[in-house]
Each structure stands twice: as structure tokens, then as C-alpha cells.
């Protein structure tokens, strides 16, 4: 609904000075409908005194007027125009103040409004930090209301995604009690709520991939919590057709993968979670799920598998003993990116020596490799060549079998490719002359 | 992708790991022209690798956000409509037909209420600060000698000698508005303006509004005061001084600190007189005890 200046003024006047409470509320409801429209939003913010009046109603002693005024602000917060969003600046100190109230619906509304404002404007973020948004959220996260928590997670995730977050925001978040509470809300168990967990898993992801102080998160038990959560997810995936689980799987996979690269992860490597082969089992169950539900997330799952197996004889052995090589090979036809990752994981296993290669052989590996050699993608072929070298080195009979399956012809087509030539020739030599 | 049937059982089984096979590397492995070495891979923010998952997340949020707003036309959770009922708190006559509305009303107006002066606050924290600064005589004594006014921002531990210093800190350090509603200084005692004199120092109160408020005949003594107060949405009369509280009208940032009230006394023309024999200022609040 497009309202002009005169109509907006009328609504505001009625809301502010009307005698009947229902009338005042009704005026704001009408205004709100108008504010769903970008044109009305523009007219509103350009009207002198309009925001001031709205903020006045937001802080009035009439609770229902407060609520309606907050809803109007919420509409404004949806705008993609920075002028509209920045017009809401005078309201932010009040939105933050109300986070320590008790009315869960109202708090939820304030949080979503804040989250929206945060996304659109650096000026808003620049103001919210000194206004104390981090301590306000840290206090609010102790709310027992799931709807409030989900809204808080949303607002926080937007804050953490800001481009200046690694320098200006994440350090103070890490210095607060927020990480501990977030990890608590990610603990698997009967109290785990999917909507809430999704938000805080994404929050963790933005913190972790910014690489500000991941060691701190590890000391707070992030690896342990996320590992258990992964197991829980795999269990859930088996039990139900719930469409939302991949929304949680994605950030969990990312967090775990990145955390495993930290030196501090080595230090807690003694913790069971990092050696527990159920993690590998869970990951494959998730990979199967992702293959059906969201194949574009397969690279993320395989990234984790790479980081689990790269330096771990234990996990490489688990891949073999749990018979996961064949399922892994099935993924080779999905995409080039996936194929490279699958081959990398196989290299992780093979490079550990003869005992490992022996368990890779015979089986479908050879024919899969001959298939990948037929790909045109250089990276896929290159990774196949690396794997072949390891197999030829550690597995007697591999070269022979390769020759017998017309391996040389498969190699020939890449003889002229710059990035592949040298490796192709080396393999040809090894195959022919041992 | 067929998974071995034992896998599901393994997931449900006990924690544990396989005895790792012996590692035995040949130095020739991964040497020129080959280059493979197992590597932990780390992806930083904004890496292309995250694109697909990020898009999915974005679509999910768009979906969620269109449902937010609590607006009656598009409820996220259906709001429970019940037969009309009245707020049970003594002295409050607000009527509701939806539980959600009642919840907010209760929390906003009855939850954090000062038992001394009946003012309501949005949070326990602000209520506690108010009680300390307004109703604790020990506070007053201590404040003469040390910094007692605590910053209102959660997490900031600064304290100040006066409420004005605190306000300056709120504005300069925390970028709060100069007229932040929940930080009005307490009026000192012993003035002949009582509570209603606040009507005088609202700087955005125009003479037009003033006369409109008087449109009901002021023949009845005291009626005009009541009308005036009601017109300004002031339906509760705190028993003393002024206002770190929720006001119904937004006050413009005043050029002088809010504690000074003399500057505004000229707003009531001397020709206006309330009821018979009333003086120019307003009398004490005794007769306005409607909602205590």
C-alpha cells in the first residue's frame, strides 16, 4: 500500500494523540501495512519527525502501542535502501534495551529487526557495537524461549558475517560468554532444537573461518561438541526424512573441517572424538544423505573426510575396515570437484604404504581409475595419476594389472597435456619396465 | 551409493577406533614429477568453495524472514484468541482478547515495577538501577563522596559522580541518544512543582496542544489538570519528582540538561488559570491517585 505524506502524518498523529487506545493501535497497524512498500518507506523517512514519533511510540507506556511501533520498525528494517535502514538508527539503543526484558514475542521482534538492520548497513553496526550489542546478546542468550534463541542466532549470524567482523566484532564475541552458550545449544540430546542449532552452527562457522582465535574455541570443547553433533545428525538422518537436516549439516561439516587444521586440534587429539571411527561412519551416512538431498554439499563432506584422513593412519584404517572404499568410488561420477576430492582421500590412504595399498587391491579401484583417466578435466586426471604412482610403488601386481586393462591407451590421450605429460611418461615407464 | 549394512550398527555402537595398520613410506612416493602429499585443507571466509552452501543458507533465511513479524495478517504461530479478559493486576483495567498481547502488556508494565513509586521499567537491570539511585538514601550519602552512578550499558563497568556525567558517557562512548528515555535524572526534592510540572518542561509541547487539551471546560477545579495529563497520555502519576521511566511522549533533546526546569516555566502564559484559586504551578499529586 502506498501512502503519501498526508496519510502518514495522519496515522502518526492518531497514534500519538488519539484518545481511544484501539484507535491509536489501528493507526499503527495501517501505517505498518503501508510500510511494507518501498515507496511508503521512502516517504516516511523523509517526513520530518516521523522516526522520532515512531521511537516515541516504541518507548511509550502503552504496551500494545510499543508492539505495533516495533512492527513498523521491523518493516523498515526489511528495506534494501541504506537510507531507510539508517533512518532507524535512533531506535537501536532502545531495541537493545528491550532485549533484557521478558516479553518473548517482543524480544524476538527486536532481534529480527536488529538482524535485518545489521545486514544492510555498516553505519548501523558501527553504532551497535559501542551501544553494547555483544553484552546484550550474551545476556539474552540465556533465555529459555526457543523462538528468542533462534532470532538471536539469526541476528548474531548477521553480525558475524559483516566484512569488518574479523577485526571489529569477533574478538569481542570471543571475549564474551557467547561461545560457551552457543556450544551448549549445540549439544546433542533431547533438548536440541533444529532451528536454534542451525543458527548457532552458522555463527560458529563465521567465527571459525575468520581464524581469529580458534584455539580458544577448542579449549571450550568445540571439537568435542561438534563431533558428537555429527554423530547425532547421522542418526537423525537415518531415522527421518526431515528436509531441514542438511541446513545443519553444512555448517557443522565446515566447522569441523576448519578446526581440524588448527595446531590446537592436535593437542586435544587424545580426546576420543578425534579418533572415534564412528565419526567416519557418521560422515558416510551423511554423504549418502547429501547425495540424495543436496549433492552440491558433497564437496563439504569430502573436505572433512580429507582432513580426517590426511594425517591419521587410524581413520585411513577405518575406511578400509568399514568397507567404505567402494561407496567412495561411487561418488566419482558426480562432478569434477567431487572426483578430485575422492581421489585425494584415496591418495591419503594409499600414501601410508603397502599395508594400506594391499587393502585397496584388487577390487573396483582399478576400473574406477581407468574411468577417471577418461575424464577431460586436468585436475581429475592429475589426481588419478598421483594415485597410480602410489599404487605402482606399494602394490606389486598393480602395474601389471593396469597394463592388462589397457591402461597405456588410457594414459596416451594425455601425453600432450602440459600439466600431465611428465607424470604420464613416468607412469608409462614404470608400467613397462617396473 | 550403497553403504555396508554394518555401518549403521557401527554408528550405534561403542566409541572406539581401529588398530591402525602399520605406516611404511617409500621416499620415492610423491617425488618429481609427482607431488602428492597429504594436506590439511583450510578455507577462509569468502572462499569460493563455500558458495553453494551459502546460497542455500540465504534461501532458507529468506523463507524464515518472510514469516517473521508477528503481524496478525501473517502469523508465524497462530495467535490464540480468547474471550475478552481484564488484566488481573490491581488498578489496571486493560482488556485483552489475545494471550500474546497480554503477555507483552504484563511484561512491559507490571513485571519490573518499582514498589516505591510504581514506575515500570523494561528490564530488571534498569529497575535495580532506578531503585538504587532514587530510593536508597545510602546511595545519596555515598554519592557525595564517590562515583556511584553506574553506566547503563550491560557489560560496561564505568561509574560516575553525577548522573550528568553518566549521560555524557552514554552519549560519547556508547553513542546513545542524548534524550535516552531511560536515563532521566532524578529531580531534587523540595520544589513546589510536583510531578505535573513535567508537563511544563516538555520542549515539544506546543501551545496548540496545550489549548486542545483544555478543550474540555475547565470549570471544575482540578479537571483541567486531569484532562491535560490524560491528553498527554499520562495515565499514571508517580508520586514524586521525575523520570527515569517510560514516558508516553517523546521528548526532544533539550538544549539545557533535563534537570533544569526554570527555563521552561514561561511556557504557561500568565493568563491561564486552573480552577478556582489555583496557583500557577500545579499542586501536589495527592488528588491524582487514580491508578495507584
Automatic annotation (TrEMBL), chain A:
The entry's keywords: Membrane, Transmembrane
UniProt key word Iron: no
The protein, known as: Transmembrane and coiled-coil domain-containing protein 6 isoform X4
Organism: Balaenoptera acutorostrata (Common minke whale)
TrEMBL record, chain B:
Name of the protein in question: Zinc finger protein 511 isoform X1
PANTHER family in the cross-refs: ZINC FINGER PROTEIN 511
Sequence ranges assigned to domain C2H2-type in this UniProt record: 87-110, 114-135, 151-174
Region spans: Disordered: 1-30
PROSITE patterns: ZINC_FINGER_C2H2_1
